[in-house]
Amino acid sequence: MGRVLFFLVLAAVVWIAYKSWARKRDGDQPPRVPKGAPGNLNTNEKEAIYPCKHCGAYSPLSSGVMVEGRFYCGLAHAKAEGEKVQ
Ligand SMILES: [Zn+2]
Predict the structure, then answer these.
(1) Ligand 1 mean position to 80 CA, how many Å?
(2) Alpha carbon of 28 to those of 24, 31, 65: distances in Å?
(3) 15-47, pLDDT tens digit by residue?
(4) Residue 58 CA, ligand 1 centroid: distance in Å
(5) Over the stretch 44-81, which tens digit does the pLDDT of each residue have?
(6) CA-CA distance, 61 to 78, in Å (whole number)?
C-alpha cells in the first residue's frame, strides 16, 4: 500500500512540475513569436542585409529577391544570373 501511495505522490509531483514547466514555456512564447513575425518587419530595426550575388550591393531582405538561398538586389539581377523568376 505504501508503494502505491509513493507512486501516486510521484506521479502528482511529476504532473505538477510538468504543468508548471509548460505554463512557463507558454508564458515565454508570446514575446518571442512577434519578433520573427512578418508584421514586425516594418520596424526596420534589425532587418537582415544581404549582398547581391550579381553586383555585390548590400540591400535589406525586403527590398531584394531571395531565390533558393541566393539573394539579389532586384529581379533584373536575379534574371541576369539565370534565375527562373517571374
Ligand atoms: Zn544586384
Answers:
(1) 9
(2) 6, 6, 33
(3) 988 898 888 888 765 554 445 555 555 555 678
(4) 8
(5) 567 899 999 999 999 999 999 999 999 999 999 999 99
(6) 14
Instruction: Using the mean position of ligand 1's atoms as its centre, give its distance from the Cα of residue 32 in Å.
Output: 33
C-alpha grid cell for residue 28?
Answer: 515565454
Q: Which CATH number fits domain 47-86: 3.30.70, 3.30.410, 1.10.3470, 3.30.60?
A: 3.30.60
Q: How far is the CA of 40 from the centre of ligand 1 (A)?
A: 26
- pTM (2 d.p.): 0.47
Measure 86 CA to ligand 1 centroid, in angstroms: 17
Rg (the chain; Cα; Å): 25
